[in-house]
Structures are given as structure tokens and as C-alpha cells.
Design a protein that fits this description.
single chain, about 180 residues, alpha/beta, Uracil-DNA Glycosylase, subunit E, 4-stranded parallel beta sheet, 3-stranded antiparallel beta sheet
């Protein structure tokens, strides 16, 4: 398989973002569809349906809007890289160019936490983002969560839902969380 230059997507956040979910770099199916988590076996959208109450069967634009309305934003740590195929393990070391995640974090006044979707995203966050964060960004919890990728087949959707529970708790408005 030939190496290809990959460029990710713009951040999908608004000023009310309370949880920023960071992936590593979109896979081939996502890049071809120009949509986050477009692979049909990726469990991200079903997981967000379970955690945030969005309808995972809606169009991509409707799902993104619902996710943002729930206070969840999306982006990737890596903005550009070379890779063979879709797997994070196929990213060519040294070809990665990080996104401006530290600057984005500083612009999100409601942000309560960062959730890394998979070990590669978390390692990339620790390598490029964490050292560049200001005081506010350094005070945020950063969760290394199991990947929703089909390559992480050992994790069922119910098991992912349990592991990703902190995302649900962090996006909920304070008043709703106090009522539970």
C-alpha cells in the first residue's frame, strides 16, 4: 500500500463546548466522506447516541449540530501526516504536524475536560499539546479513553460506554447533574 499525505478536518466546536474529544487523524473512510468517524463499524456515533442522546441515524450535519448542542466538540491532535491505510500504527513517525489544539483550548471558556479517543491520540496530546498549554489548559482533566475504532474490536459498545462515562458527566449542564 502506498503512503499518502493525509490532512484532517477543521475543529467542530462552538463556544459552549464543555468536552473536547480529540482523535489522532481521520481514517481513509472518514477522509473520503469528509466526515468524522465515517467508517460504518466505528462506534463513535452509536456511543455518542448512548451518552449524549443524539440520534446516530441522522445526517452528518444534524449529528454534528446535536453533538455541539450537547457541549461536545471534535477535532484531532494531528492535522497532517503521511500514512499507509487507516491505522494509527501506519502513521509515518516524524511526518506528523499537530493542529493548534492549545490555542483552541484557550478559546473555550466552558471547557471542562479533554477526551482522547484512543492511545495514539493521547500520546500525541502528551507530545505536542500538553507542553504548549497555558495555565488554564493544564488545569483541565485529560482522559485517555479506549478507541472507538473498529481496530479496537476487543471493546464492545457497552464496555466503551462504561469507559467513556466521564464524557457524559462532563457535558451535562451543572443543574441537570445536581438533580441526578
Amino acid at each position: 500500500m502506498e503512503q499518502m499525505q493525509c490532512s484532517g478536518f477543521p475543529a467542530q466546536v462552538d463556544t459552549q463546548c464543555r468536552v473536547l474529544v480529540l482523535g489522532s487523524m481521520p481514517g481513509v473512510a472518514s477522509l473520503q466522506a469528509a466526515q468524522y468517524y465515517a467508517h460504518p463499524r466505528n462506534r463513535f456515533w452509536p456511543l455518542m447516541a448512548a451518552l449524549c442522546g443524539i440520534d446516530a441515524t441522522q445526517s452528518y450535519a444534524v449529528r454534528l449540530a446535536a453533538l455541539q448542542a450537547a457541549g461536545v466538540g471534535l477535532w484531532d491532535v494531528i492535522g497532517h501526516c503521511r500514512r499507509r491505510g487507516s491505522l494509527d500504527a501506519a502513521i509515518v513517525r516524524g511526518s506528523e504536524v499537530p493542529n493548534a489544539v492549545p490555542a483552541l483550548i484557550e478559546q473555550l471558556p466552558q471547557l471542562r475536560a479533554v477526551a482522547c479517543n484512543g492511545a495514539t491520540a493521547h500520546r500525541a496530546f502528551e507530545r505536542w499539546v500538553a507542553p504548549a498549554l497555558g495555565a488554564r489548559g493544564r488545569s483541565l482533566p485529560v482522559w485517555a479513553l479506549p478507541s472507538t475504532s473498529p481496530a479496537n474490536a476487543a471493546w464492545s459498545l457497552p464496555r466503551l460506554q462504561l469507559a467513556w462515562q466521564p464524557v457524559q458527566l462532563a457535558w451535562q449542564p451543572v443543574a441537570a447533574a445536581l438533580q441526578d
